[in-house]
Amino acid sequence: MAVTVTVYGLLQKSLWEGRINFTTDTIKVMALSAYTVGSTATTAQFISDVLAAATEATGTGTSGYTAGGATLASKTVTYTAANSWSTQRANSTSYTVGDVVRPASANGYVYRCVVAGTSGGSLPTYTTVPGDDFVDGAVTWVNEGTGVLVVDAADPSWTTGNPGSLTASHLVFYKDTGTPTTSPVIALWDLGGAQVASNGGAFTAQLDAGEGLLTMFTS
What we know:
The protein folds into two domains: 4-75 and 153-211, no CATH class; 83-145, no CATH class. It is 7% helix and 42% strand. The protein has three helices and 18 strands. The protein has helices spanning 11-16, 40-43, 47-51; strands at 4-7, 27-35, 54-56, 60-61, 70-71, 76-81, 94-95, 100-101, 110-115, 117-118, 133-136, 139-145, 147-152, 157-159, 164-175, 185-198, 202-204, 214-218. The strands form five sheets. Strands 1, 2, 3, 4, 5, 15 and 16 form a seven-stranded antiparallel beta sheet that branches. Strands 8-9-12-11 form a four-stranded antiparallel beta sheet, with no helix packed on it. It has a three-stranded antiparallel beta sheet with strand order 6-13-18, with no helix packed on it.
């Protein structure tokens, strides 16, 4: 399953307005059976804005799904300076969009993959200008700055009964205030089409082991 991650454009507005404290608030992931994203990626601030263009999943039989979605557990927010970032760029290695690395000889910056491919067989010339990119074999990296903020949690999951099924094409992460019109959205996962778990199977949103739910950078 190829997942495309989109951070809602108004997340920063919600953060600056003090609407979200990730570690202490109730953060949920909602499964959607249909979603015409359109402009909502940049205009939606609350889950009500998303639901105006989407249909929440319900499943059939014993789906394991509860309206509103699953609550995230084991939430963390971790900042790491670039030179301490654990993932080092390696020669002749396959990278996917979103991967974050630092040079093996740390130079104070981290780099995010923006064009997937296999890295070159020798060390590239790293740009030290935040925002600039460079080619490394078939990979293109962009300099993202001097540190990494990772927002992470345990993988949320729904377990179906037998008989039962759960189908979703999108997942939306948001803070649940109990009122849709004041529940700010955080990020969207496009699952690349309808994904199904059934008859005792689990529908799991597997967060990246290194980059968590959301990765932000300081320059």
